[in-house]
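INTERNAL AUDIT FORM
Audit reference: QA-55
Scope: verify that the stored structure record matches its stored sequence.
Auditor: D.O.
Record contents follow.
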Amino acid sequence: MFEAAFMQRALIAGVIISVLLSVLGFFVVLRKMSFIGVGIAHAAFGGVALGQLLGIPIFLSASIFSVAAGLGIGAVTRHGKIREDTAIGIFFAAGMALGVLFLSLKQGYTADLMSYLFGSILAVTPADLWIIAAVAVVILVIIALFFKELLATSFDAELARASGIPEGVLFYLLLGLVSLGIVSAIKLVGIVLVSALLVLPAATALQWSERYGRVFILSVILGLVYTLGGLIASYWLDIPSGATIVILGTVVFLFSLILSPMRRRSLKHDTTHVDPSNEVAKTD
């Protein structure tokens, strides 16, 4: 199965991206800003289409669009006095609209553009692999350098600011890193599905533990399981790899939600604290 060069590249790219998105997703889920991945990913469509129209590297144009969208969402949310979901919806729609506009200006159908929409991990080229690896190294190094500060601001932004941590700078830094991580992954799993891969590992890990260290490690492990398991399954079943990865992650999440010790503990806590009003109702 892995004798073919394209499968080896897909495997390496899958490992890199799953680790990268799982690490980024850990902070995204802790900050309760999971939907932001959807907005950034779809805004990237405008950058992909612009790259096709102008004949410039798609990674460059998509990165510029995505980072601008991520920072724009953050700025509008913090200083524009509107809700985060509203800002995401605006940039989501604007990015997709610009993508459609740029496509209308380009003659002919571009098959490569479709791979960015729905993913094609088996079509990863050696050049793609080098770009993905370089971006992942830069992002992971930055996260390692500011891990404690990012963690502090993710748990309690106000307390972090009171402690002298530049929470605002770290917020925009995280948005920029998430944007670049999403752009790195869209050719593998697609614009439509990349936000799910960003959120699913951390969301599943939180069903099994409340300790951030365990959640972080489990998130990375689950990201690897989803990507490698989905890649192998898609190869043998001859179905789209990006969709298979996300479906596998969703199934594991749903099972985790049902079997979650966190959920059982919460239910047990609720049953041991009886509502006094119910007791009164029973005695009447």
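Auditor finding: record pair retrieved intact. The two ends are 71 Å apart (CA to CA).
Action required: none
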